[in-house]
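Example record

Each entry pairs one chain with its bound ligand, pyridoxal-5'-phosphate.
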Amino acid sequence: MKKYNFNAGPSVLPDVALENAAKAIIDFNGTGLSILSISHRTKEFEAVLAEAKSLFRELLHIPENYHIYFVGGGASTQFFHIPANFLAKKAGYVNTGVWTKKAIKEAKLYGEVEVVASSEDKNFSYVPKGYTIPADLDYLYICSNNTIYGTEIKEDIDSPVPLIADMSSDILSRPVDVSKYAVIYGGAQKNLAPAGVTFVIIRDDMLEKVARTLPTMMNVKTHVENDSMFNTPPVFPIYVMNETLKWLKSISGVEEIYRRNVAKAELLYNEIDRNSLFRPTTAKEDRSLMNICFVMSEGNEDLAPEFMEFAKARGMVGIKGHRLVGGFRASCYNACPYEAVEALVACMQEFEALKTK
Ligand SMILES: *Cc1c(COP(=O)(O)O)cnc(C)c1O
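Structure tokens for the complex follow.
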């Protein structure tokens, strides 16, 4: 049976990236060696790294005064790398869910944290707006897409202090004005690669703001100055990321993928709104394009396990909602085809017909 992959992460990748990765595991670029067993210092791998950086810059329109590097450790490592490097006295955090809560906890190890806005009062079902950003913060920290709750900060905030964003789950899914940010980072396993590589995009002036003496691997300067090669970088995830970036370029880049992502999200949200058995869990204007959350409508709650089985039998994979929200979550990342969302919508319609006849 055809499977439709809605996993939240690690998640769906373009077929062509997987095919090329499969080949490269046996014979990487005609070297006669596997990508899994070559030195990261070979000119062949250095070319992959350079191409990945250059495609990232091109696709996201990253200005010249920004550096890009790739490291291990996941986004969760950045939760403490960011404050270790940049929290001298006080940082501001916008609390929009689990991932910012975790980041706040780490930041408190390094200095004062002011939660400038939060949507915790309504189980993070919306994005806080209209708050004031104090001018005395070392930085303002946001998570642009809340993978678990399905909300997304869609505007590039005008911040009087350096703006730092975790874009793990919406990187390269929509146009972003990078010049509004001081640092953008994320784990690549949602939209770009298998787990194991983290991307960091950092404005040049931030390198002069490192607030304390740090272990070498924690200092952002180490990774910029050594061009992601201070230690062994995650070779294979970087290879696959490069293949994903090449695919994204081949389909005309971020502007085109954004158009496709909007089309997929509209199709599914329209069905959630229309279908009498389901309801959305997020404020309409803040709905994520990537992680689409929904639950059974009032009075139909106990149909949830049955719908799960029904959908599973029709090839849907990974649609169980996070335990903090319940219900369902369809993660419709870049490589998720329109056809997968159509199949899920058809499934919801069939289930409704079955239950309401
Ligand atoms: C998945 C995710 C993380 C955690 O990433 P790891 O690489 O597992 O540490 C952090 N932030 C967001 C927004 C995520 O979606």
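The mean pLDDT is 98.
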